[in-house]
């Protein structure tokens, strides 16, 4: 059955399949990396993977480019999840919390995705809620306009003494740390970023939701993502992990055939 599913989705190199299993180990996560612009020839295949609701959403986009990116990103997500759920992509069912975060119905796999410019990253975890965020650097961004929304007072003070060339990276590093956290807990941007202290956060350390009336889990763990130049990326997860397994889609073959491991003490 599994080989039949993989044959249908056709996005994995066969010799990688045995390396994609959790085997009951929740101390690792899988991160899938895709350049969406290299997948447009597969749009008909990914369209077939979508639910009726997703097809309707895709057709609401005013430009063909945005429509195509939606079809590709959500089609690939379903193909990845089909490997873990052992379902056909179009048969996978999602449920959503009141903030709109999707979860798999009747499965203990957790997932999240983040899209910025041409790149999309997906993360799959076992049992533990997880959030991922990547952001491409926008050199024209007026960070001062967002500082009150994103920075704590201490972060804002530190930002003001940085040299101009350091400010952009500082901003996006903080943004992705905080964004991955609120995506993991499931609240999204309804949670105020300027209440989260993340400036001194290092890999594997706890990151906290400090709002007094917050009803979500308070403590999470932060891990940095390995990303291409001019990007920042972060993971937040409710359980400390010791391994991130990265899989990259081959730009010529449009299949995942590159794998690398990152270990944490």
UniProtKB/TrEMBL annotation:
Organism annotation: Nosema granulosis
Gene transcribed to yield this protein: hetI
Molecular-function GO terms, alphabetical: holo-[acyl-carrier-protein] synthase activity; magnesium ion binding
PANTHER family: L-AMINOADIPATE-SEMIALDEHYDE DEHYDROGENASE-PHOSPHOPANTETHEINYL TRANSFERASE, PHOSPHOPANTETHEINE TRANSFERASE
Residues covered by the 4'-phosphopantetheinyl transferase domain: 130-226
Superkingdom of this protein's organism: Eukaryota
EC id: 2.7.8.7
A GO BP annotation: lysine biosynthetic process via aminoadipic acid
Keywords tagged on the record: Transferase
Cross-referenced InterPro entries: 4-PPantetheinyl_Trfase_dom (IPR008278), 4-PPantetheinyl_Trfase_dom_sf (IPR037143), AASDHPPT_N (IPR055066), P-Pant_transferase_sf (IPR050559)
Presence of keyword Transcription: no
GO cellular component, one term: cytosol
Annotated ranges, domain 4'-phosphopantetheinyl transferase N-terminal: 47-120
Protein name (record): holo-[acyl-carrier-protein] synthase
């Amino acid at each position: 059955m599994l080989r039949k599913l993989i044959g249908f989705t056709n996005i994995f190199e066969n010799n990688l399949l045995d390396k994609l299993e959790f085997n009951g180990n929740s101390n690792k996560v899988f991160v899938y990396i895709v350049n969406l612009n290299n997948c447009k020839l597969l749009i008909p295949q990914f369209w077939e993977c979508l639910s009726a609701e997703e097809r309707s959403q895709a057709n609401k986009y005013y430009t063909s480019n945005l429509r195509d990116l939606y079809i590709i990103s959500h089609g690939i997500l379903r193909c990845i999840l089909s490997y873990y759920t052992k379902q056909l992509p179009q048969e996978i069912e999602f449920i959503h919390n009141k903030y709109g975060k999707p979860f798999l119905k009747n499965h203990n796999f957790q997932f999240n995705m983040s899209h910025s410019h041409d790149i999309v990253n997906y993360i799959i975890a076992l049992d533990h809620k997880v959030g991922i965020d990547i952001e491409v650097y926008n050199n024209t961004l007026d960070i001062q306009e967002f500082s009150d929304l994103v920075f704590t007072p201490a972060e804002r003070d530190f930002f003001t003494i940085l040299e101009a060339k350091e400010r952009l990276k500082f901003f996006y590093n903080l943004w992705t740390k905080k964004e991955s956290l609120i995506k993991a807990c499931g609240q999204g941007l309804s949670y105020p970023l300027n209440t989260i202290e993340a400036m001194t956060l290092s890999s594997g350390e706890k990151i906290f939701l400090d709002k007094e009336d917050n009803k979500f889990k308070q403590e999470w763990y932060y891990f940095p993502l390995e990303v291409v130049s001019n990007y920042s990326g972060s993971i937040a997860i409710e359980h400390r992990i010791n391994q991130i397994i990265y899989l990259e889609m081959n730009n010529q073959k449009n299949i995942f055939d590159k794998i690398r491991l990152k270990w944490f003490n």
